[in-house]
Amino acid sequence: MHFVSSSESTDGCVLSPSASAFSAMLSAFIGSVVNGLTSGWFVAFMTGWIAWFALFRVMLAGLYMLYRSSTDSWGPGKHERIPGPGEEDLDHLMNNDNSGFNLGEEVGRAPTQPSRFRILWPTAADVRTVGSDQRLWGTNKTVAQSLRDLDHGVSVLGWFGWIYGAVYAPITQSFWIAANTNTSSNGAAKIVKGLSIAVTALPLGMDCRVRYADSLKRKWAGTLFNLTNSISCVLQGIFCAILLVHGVIDLSASSSSFFPWPIVAIYPVFSLVWMYTSFTFLPIKDGARKSGKAHWYRHILDLSMGAFAGLFLAAPAFALYQSAQFAKFESGDRSNGMNNLASYLSCERQLWRKFVAVVP
After folding, report:
1. Is the pLDDT of residue 79 over 70?
2. Among residues 248, 344, 236, 4, which one has the least CA distance to residue 356?
3. Which pLDDT band, with edges at 50, 70 and 90, does 2 fall under?
4. Would you call 150 helix, strand, or coil by DSSP?
5. What confidence score (pLDDT) does residue 326 get?
6. Are 49 and 278 in contact (CB under 8 A)?
7. ∠ CA 204-209-143 to the nearest 5 degrees?
8. Which of 90, 166, 207, 312 is 20 to 30 A from 4, alpha carbon to alpha carbon?
9. What distance in Å separates the CA atoms of residue 357 and residue 99, rounded to the nearest whole number?
10. Is 224 exposed, middle or buried (0-12, 13-18, 19+ CB in 10 A)?
11. d(Cα 346, Cα 168) in Å, to the nearest integer?
């Protein structure tokens, strides 16, 4: 029995579009739970809110972190020094205030008013300074509260979350792309996979974890950490864009009826609006705080929000996985992704393709 082609190996085993959505479903749910446990309930909530329109936020945050990491301009940590007079960086192009850790306050002069672009391209001081500092955010109580909720110091859980999101996730995503982009019949699976990538990419640019780099004993190790974090964010943004574009092209080509091009056209507009709005609530920050140990109920809240957001984020992939329309057999019989996936795993001999099919 031969299935509708989506991902076909050299053994002739075929994975249908609905079965291809299984790993995307796991990626969205498990990634959200990891976000809640390792980054806190607010990051999990914001990820759930933004993820379907996250492309531009992921790319801008990744490019910002890459600039800071490649120019070593994150500001004074354990290995850095405070910039001296006259030392400038790209902040001058985007902000009205001074760069680095000179917050624009001199004796006898009031601080300058931040420009509208400051939330998009913050100074190093904005990222490093605690959220309650009103020199940075004025009377914006919503922003101040959201930044206080990033209450996570350097921890084993934090390291696990970073390894999962910044190292493991882009590796498995690249394998999925390699296994699924050689056909044009799985456009829907590519779209839901592209949306699920944001679940691991977004937290990298919400809490940039510069404090983890500071905690390393060697400066080169800290620089490598920051570069890995930023490159991973940019790379996942590129993966997301590739899958969304290819998915739309493939799905439109295989559609026998009217394709919703107006929705496709308005998607970038919504993504830009979501990006700017989300930055007003949760700008790029280093989430280190001095509030001490979190109470046990905070961990329950973190886990619960991660699971709740995960169910929401996994819904499109789950709907595709359960769809008989995208898993019908050539003979005309109908099934769903679960039946096709089981048949594929029993047929496929290449371990890496089995890995791609079931691993988030």
Report:
1. no
2. 344
3. very low
4. coil
5. 54
6. yes
7. 80
8. 312
9. 47
10. middle
11. 26
Asked if 51 contacts 59 with a C-beta cutoff of 8 angstroms, the reply is no
Q: Which of 340, 313, 315 is nearest to 326 (CA)?
A: 340
Burial of 109 (0-12, 13-18, 19+ CB in 10 A): exposed
pLDDT of residue 268: 94
Give the Å distances, CA to CA, from 86 to 46, 258, 267. 38, 59, 42
Encoded tokens for 125: 């001081």
Instruction: Classify burial at 140, counting beta carbons within 10 Å of its beta carbon; exposed 0-12, middle 13-18, buried 19 or more.
Output: middle
- Structure tokens, 259: 């394709």
177, 171 in Cβ contact below 8 A? no
**What confidence score (pLDDT) does residue 295 get?**
63
193-214 pLDDT tens trace: 999 999 999 999 999 999 999 9
Burial, 335: exposed, middle or buried (Cβ in 10 Å; 0-12, 13-18, 19+)?
middle
**DSSP state letters, 23-55:** HHHHHHHHHHHHHHHHH-HHHHHHHHHHGGG-H
DSSP letter (8 states) at residue 17: H
